[in-house]
Amino acid sequence: MTSNLEYLEQNDPAVFAALKGEEERQRSGIELIPSENYTHAEVLAALGSVFTNKYSEGYPGRRYYGGQEYTDQIENLARDRAKAVFRCEHANVQPLSGSAMNQAVYLGLLEPGDTILAMDLSHGGHLTHGAPVSHMGKLFNFVRYVTDPVDGSIDFDQVRNDALAHKPKLLLCGYTSYPRDIDYAAFKAIADEVGAITMTDASHFGGLVAGDAMKNPFDFGFDVVTTTTHKSLRGPRGGMVLCKKEFASKIDKSVFPGLQGGPHMNAIAAIAVTLLKAQQPEFKQYAQQVLRNASTLATELMNRQASLVTGGTDNHMMVMNTMTSYGLDGRVAEEVLDQAAITTNKQIIPDDPNPPLRPSGIRIGTPAATARGMVESDMVQLAEWINTCLRNPEDQALLAKTRGDVEDFCRQFPVPGLE
Ligand SMILES: *Cc1c(COP(=O)(O)O)cnc(C)c1O
Question: For domain 282-410, which architecture applies?
């Protein structure tokens, strides 16, 4: 029987060639972008399934189209597993991405013009946390807190002062570029003082919460947690809103029909698969190993005189100040490491004097490397390569030789879903 991939190869060689190129790129280099990961073979199977053919507007048992016997089964599975994994009362698994899930929360629980207190983009928050260029930044009154200029951590005196001064309806924590865990009890106490709803955007570390390697905001009485499903959770691209029962109906109406039309049922099938994986002992070990690898990589980089924002990491990522470490801006550092098949991303650092496309740092994370089976001793080798390349950015021979070494090294580590 001809497989789907064989049909693709025969009938659209251009797309097939690009797919093979991307597979080889993912196999041969080290992926250190903290928001990326390798998903499971079972997830790829569900994503490429006939569930993509089905319209399922509405929710299980209340749909606007017939033929929902099996789509209801998978959406119920995904919701029940999400509730079990994150220990919460309600789950909506329909958001098409992380950005849509956050928009659904703001639009469902607040009125346009309401105040939201969230982390500033340049200090680690996400675009959807009220960056002025985002639509949400125009629709709601975002007040944005920054990190402490000395130690780089969240300054709770400032968060509290902002909360008392601006009386936000929603207090949002969570980040896209911040290397420390969150003091949920401190956020919750401030929110209670001003009567704000508490929300964590766990997009980056949702998988580490699911694997019990990081704290769960619901254990501190949080109202709403959002997470992407494709970062540390290792699922398909998508988002979930998890919340207390009292917000369930508003959240569901906000996702559909408020913000979206038909959900992507192939992605929801894949989310169900991801959440079954997340309940296995192997996933808990994976989540722990992500943190051990990040901690080792951070220590080894600092032993080689690299300077990391906040002086290390408690989570899966670190933010390196490449200007003070190596005299290179983040764009150059990213390009130098790319030449050695080590993928990172340029990153603005708190109070960055440089412009966003030439920022002062890079972001490095361990979820993808750990998914390939890399452990602490491999992080020592990685630190050595990163440090040597960034100290010798002009040495083409060295960068080419390192690329060869990295590619040889990577052959020991199968890519999930590809082998
Ligand atoms: C990645 C991320 C998002 C957005 O996810 P997309 O799927 O890219 O839309 C939202 N919030 C945070 C904190 C993120 O890191």
Answer: Alpha-Beta Complex (3.90)
Phi-psi region of 333 (alpha: psi -120 to 50; beta: other; left: phi over 0): alpha
Instruction: For domain 45-278, give the fold.
Output: Aspartate Aminotransferase; domain 2 (3.40.640)
What are the φ/ψ torsions at residue 117 (nearest 5 degrees)? -100, 120
Q: Whose CA is nearest to atom 5 of ligand 1?
A: 98
Q: Which atom of ligand 1 sits closest to the CA of residue 202?
A: 13
Q: Which residues are catalytic?
A: 55, 57, 201, 228, 231, 237
Distance CA 290, CA 218 (A): 22
Mutation pick for ligand 1 pocket among 228, 240, 316 (CB with most ligand atoms within 8 Å): 228
Average confidence (pLDDT) over 377-397: 98
pLDDT at 1 exceeding the cut of 90: no
Q: Which ligand 1 atom is nearest residue 125's CA?
A: 13
User: Using a 6 Å CB cutoff, which residues line ligand 1?
Assistant: 35, 97-99, 102, 126, 128, 174-176, 201, 203-204, 228
Q: Where are the domains of the chain?
A: 45-278, 282-410
Positive or negative torsion for Cα 374, 380, 383, 385: negative
Q: Give per-residue pLDDT as tens, 23-39.
A: 999 999 999 999 999 99
The whole-model pTM stands at: 0.97
Look at phi and psi of residue 174 and say left if phi exceeds 0, alpha if psi is from -120 to 50, else beta: left
